[in-house]
Amino acid sequence: MRNRMYLKSMKLYDYPWKYNLDYLIGRGVKVSFGQVMKNYTSFKIGGPADVVVTPRNNLELKYTLDFLSELVNFGINYHIIGGASNLLIADEGIRGLVVRLCYISPIIFDGEYIWVSGAEPLSRIISYCSEQGFGGLEYLSGIPGTVGGSIIMNAGTNSEAIGQSVRHVHTWYSGEKEYLNKDLDFSYRHSTLQKTNEIVTRVALKVKREDSLKIIKKVREFLLKRRKGQPLTLPSAGSVFKNPSNYSAGQLLEEVGVKGLRVGGAQVSYTHSNFIINIDEASSYDVLALIRLMKNSVQEKTDIILEPEIIYLGG
Ligand SMILES: Cc1cc2nc3c(=O)[nH]c(=O)nc-3n(C[C@H](O)[C@H](O)[C@H](O)COP(=O)(O)OP(=O)(O)OC[C@H]3O[C@@H](n4cnc5c(N)ncnc54)[C@H](O)[C@@H]3O)c2cc1C
User: Could you tell me the Gene Ontology terms of the biological process aspect for this record (predicted)?
Assistant: First the structure.
């Protein structure tokens, strides 16, 4: 009843796909109306989304994809979020449909690769690999996010990124596709999937047999490095800007003196100048204004134009 009232109040009855939500609800898929997105984002920022569909296992994902097929047939698009750890979501929220893909499912080793769901949190993969003695992915330790989001962003450190470990990527957009690593043009924080609205459903990652204790030691080293260099106790969305070629965005920002700069509840971190932290109920406007100030400061003093790594969604 409450959902129906919400649909009415949001004028969602005008949406041609509204009745098909019953297909999902009837199969137990979580469907929320007017869910405030700041509850999901690592930044703790973001207003209400009209509809959020949250499959919680691979079967529910299948139902969700059936539902999305209908949507795509209507020519209607949808937004995908994973761990929402690289996103700035508008205070006005998101109109239309959000599909939230972040759940745990079985990880399968086929003798060469581990096969993981696109919705799998990276932290779970690190734990699995540490326990099972699969090395090679330790560089992903401490990156909060899912496999799908990491494939889109080609997430990693300054020297290693998930693209180097990817062998196969299965996606869905009104039908399934399979890619090999070479098809996706992985480069620094880039993959060709950034330009499509394909959902990353399954990924094969290259691993090597290694002693669990050695893996755990490496994981600890990565986590310690992060704890020293990043402000991890306050909400953020990680690095604000990508590193321009031959420069570190953090170093440039530090040199132009933006450290500690504050707009409303958003502040440039004292620990890492390329992080904005939400120190006091920051709005998306606070963050956008601060991003502009940071970018302008670097451009005025160095002529270098910084490109955002954080993705802005909604409004
Ligand atoms: C404290 C902190 C530290 C961080 N450190 C790093 C770091 O060291 N290196 C780094 O690269 N990043 C870092 N990040 C940023 C972020 O964690 C990564 O970019 C992460 O890979 C994003 O994954 P996600 O699931 O949260 O994606 P989201 O933020 O939810 O989404 C990012 C993009 O991926 C898309 N997407 C998400 N899931 C899917 C899917 N299944 N299929 C298709 N598209 C999808 C979204 O539409 C969006 O375009 C950090 C963030 C924080 C908060």
Answer: cell division; cell wall organization; peptidoglycan biosynthetic process; regulation of cell shape
